[in-house]
Amino acid sequence: MNIVVCIKQILDPEIPARDFRVDSVKCEAERGSANLVTNIFCENALETALQFREAQGGKITAISCGPEGAEDVLRKALALKADDAVLVLNEAPNADPLFVAKTLAAGIRKIGPFDAVLVGREAGDWGAGQTGGLLAEELQVPCISFAENLQPSAASGAVKVKRQTDSGWELLESATPLVITITNHEKNVPRIPKTRDVMQSYRKPLVKWTLAELGIDPSTANSYYRVAELFIPRKETQCEFISGDTLEAKIDAFAHRVTDCMRSM
Amino acid sequence: MIVQDVVCYLFGRAGFDRAAQGILGAGRRLADSLGEKLRAAVLGPADDALTAGAQAVADTVVLAEDAPLEEYHPENFLTALATICNQLQPTAVLLGNDTYSQELAPRLAHRLGGSAASDAVEVVAEGGQLRVTRGVYGGKATAVIALCRSPGVVWVRARAMAPADPTGRPAGEVQRLKLGLKADERVKVVSRHVEAKEGVPLEEARLIVSGGRGLGGPEPFKELQALAKAMGAQMAASRAACDAGWVPPSWQVGQTGKKVAPELYMAIAISGASQHIMGIADAKVICAINRDPDAPIFKHCRFGLVEDYQKVVGPLRDKLSRHS
Ligand SMILES: Cc1cc2nc3c(=O)[nH]c(=O)nc-3n(C[C@H](O)[C@H](O)[C@H](O)COP(=O)(O)OP(=O)(O)OC[C@H]3O[C@@H](n4cnc5c(N)ncnc54)[C@H](O)[C@@H]3O)c2cc1C
Ligand SMILES: Nc1ncnc2c1ncn2[C@@H]1O[C@H](COP(=O)(O)O)[C@@H](O)[C@H]1O
């Protein structure tokens, strides 16, 4: 199987709210002292691909669309033993999901035949949750969303995918090629690369393509949607910390507050 | 192109639940603001309550009951919905935030030549464009997204949307459509598993007890469960607890989990990351037990207890079961 994993670099989503600022004119988050990291669901997707390759063999190509600095997330994928890596250079900061999907689709076609494209269910910055579906439409293949794993199928030219639903899970079987969006699960928690492999990843080849090489017009980066406003909502609640002389008294007071709430329902 | 009307997509099998009511409410208000008609598109078997409920709010109710729509199937539902929308040529298509609707929305927008937006808390029409308000950066910021293409396909936080008042409105006309849909051969649903869970869905629970990574393992969740039972509450968890495999993924609350709106949400050993808060923004009262007084969760709490949960959960259960 040829598996392509789409990887996005984002501003560290774990930075505390008090350190987070936005530029409301440019409608962008301010970088500040925050790190740029791999989107967690892309890591889950890569982990899913690595596990599939370990069990079934195959090849993994990591692809990202972003500025020069996005090379870092691809180096990390190489350190985790992705076979190949491709960076499509795009400097537009707020490119919309259709632009990204068209660019990735063009990149994937240039890479060659594929069986499965794995993407994250959503990116931890803008949380669009659209790239997978749009990519499937661009590539004209089926799409299975919120998958937690990828399994071989007894039928040739097909895979099985276990995916999460609101009330449990379901098992789907699909012909390849297809697009799968990956969600988090205890079995796809990303592995940590070894230091030696991180060092070696810098010696591995990494292909860079420009938008022009893929026939993508950068002026279309916001013809699907654009961010009209970006601001930090103000909402803080005054917390009453339960006090008391003894633990028992505190628990008692806490229980009273709870029963008050339950009574007023 | 002359665009008109608002289409609300409803999943027949879900029935006339709070989500369906919220989608129709949001659709009705948007259609009224545009001076347009509201069409409800119901895919799959619809019961009488759903048909009547949709008729009470929408101007027309389109029922599509082709055999391939008997059970949810991503490709079949997408094709059916795209076919219906191509006939109706709407300005906007609204869907709910169940996982099935989430996966349909962007693909539907693509097929219709429109633009999609996700997780909307508000949708308005301005100067011929839809504008969608949503949380971004894990809930740390709010964005207004302007959709450049038509139709705007938006999935909304369905249960947070107010239902429409049907008073004085004539019942919408029902149209039964035969789409002549050919079942997709590429994707098969092999099996479907619904987790056994007592009581109402988490999204509709009025009391929720939720546990996080600070519990340290699956065993303490049993203690929380006893507390929840004593209160008549539903159980939920943070992503960290789900990722650890302590509880099923369907318990996860937050940006990428369930959006809940209980009267009381009790967070135990949960730090209160913004992504978690995104799922509980509509809770009436949030309270927490956390041993760290600086845990961000307290910034969202009406009241809180700074303690080790191990010392609190057992006695709290005893006190609350005596009260009820
Ligand atoms: C794109 C994205 C989407 C995400 N989606 C979600 C989501 O949907 N839902 C979600 O929950 N998270 C989500 N997250 C993860 C989120 O950022 C946090 O990592 C996660 O919520 C942390 O879970 P936690 O609070 O259980 O764990 P921690 O942050 O580790 O907090 C544990 C807490 O337990 C307390 N504690 C420890 N021991 C005790 C004790 N003995 N007694 C009392 N208190 C104790 C600690 O003080 C601490 O506050 C998402 C992240 C990203 C990047
Ligand atoms: N610029 C990008 N480069 C590579 N993959 C991307 C990019 N943007 C989005 N993706 C993929 O699409 C997923 C969902 O992102 P989004 O639709 O933006 O929420 C991510 O987890 C990635 O797998």
Task: Report a brief summary of the structure.
The complex is a heterodimer of chains A (265) and B (324). Chain A is built from 6 helices and 15 strands.
Topology:
The complex is a heterodimer of chains A (265) and B (324).
Chain A: E1 2-6, E2 9-11, E3 22-23, E4 28-29, E5 36-38, H1 40-56, E6 59-66, H2 71-79, E7 84-89, H3 97-111, E8 116-120, H4 131-139, E9 143-152, E10 158-165, E11 168-175, E12 178-182, H5 195-201, E13 207-210, E14 225-231, E15 240-241, H6 247-263
Parallel strand pairs in A: 1-6, 1-8, 6-7, 7-13, 8-12, 9-12
Antiparallel strand pairs in A: 2-5, 3-4, 9-10, 10-11
Helix pairs in contact in A: 2-5, 3-4
Chain B: E1 4-11, H1 18-34, E2 38-43, H2 48-57, E3 60-64, H3 74-88, E4 90-95, H4 99-112, E5 115-120, E6 122-126, E7 129-136, E8 141-147, E9 152-156, E10 173-177, E11 187-194, E12 207-211, H5 218-231, E13 234-237, H6 239-243, E14 264-268, H7 274-277, E15 285-290, E16 303-306, H8 309-323
Parallel strand pairs in B: 1-2, 1-4, 2-3, 3-10, 4-9, 5-9, 12-13, 12-14, 14-15, 15-16
Antiparallel strand pairs in B: 6-7, 7-8
Helix pairs in contact in B: 1-2, 3-4, 5-8
Write out key terms for the chains shown.
heterodimer; A: 265 residues; alpha/beta; Rossmann fold; 2 domains; nine-stranded mixed beta sheet; two-stranded antiparallel sheet; 6 helices; 15 strands; B: 324 residues; seven-stranded parallel beta sheet; five-stranded parallel beta sheet; 8 helices; 16 strands; binds flavin-adenine dinucleotide; binds adenosine monophosphate
In the CATH classification, which architecture of the largest domain in chain B applies?
3-Layer(aba) Sandwich
Give me the strand/helix succession of chain A: EEEEEHEHEHEHEEEEHEEEH
Low-confidence stretches of chain B: none
What gap, in angstroms, lies between the N and C termini of chain B? 61 Å
3D architecture notes:
The complex is a heterodimer of chains A (265) and B (324). Chain A has 265 residues and is of the alpha/beta class. In chain A, 28% of the residues lie in helices and 29% in strands. Chain A has helices spanning 40-56, 71-79, 97-111, 131-139, 195-201, 247-263; strands at 2-6, 9-11, 22-23, 28-29, 36-38, 59-66, 84-89, 116-120, 143-152, 158-165, 168-175, 178-182, 207-210, 225-231, 240-241. In chain A, strand 3 (22-23) and strand 4 form a beta hairpin. The termini of chain A are far apart. Chain B is of the alpha/beta class and 324 residues long. Chain B has eight helices and 16 strands. In chain B, strands 5-9-4-1-2-3-10 form a seven-stranded parallel sheet, sandwiched between helices. Chain B has a five-stranded parallel sheet with strand order 13-12-14-15-16. A three-stranded antiparallel sheet of chain B has the order 6-7-8. The longest helix of chain B has 17 residues, at 18-34. Classes of the chains: A alpha/beta (265), B alpha/beta (324). At the A-B interface, helix 4, strand 9, strand 10, strand 11 and strand 14 of A face helix 4, strand 5, strand 7, strand 8 and strand 11 of B. Strand 15 (240-241) of chain A pairs parallel with strand 16 of chain B. Flavin-adenine dinucleotide sits between chains B (138, 212-214, 238-241, 252-257, 269-271, 273, 275-276, 279, 289-292, 295, 308-310) and A (13-14, 40, 124).
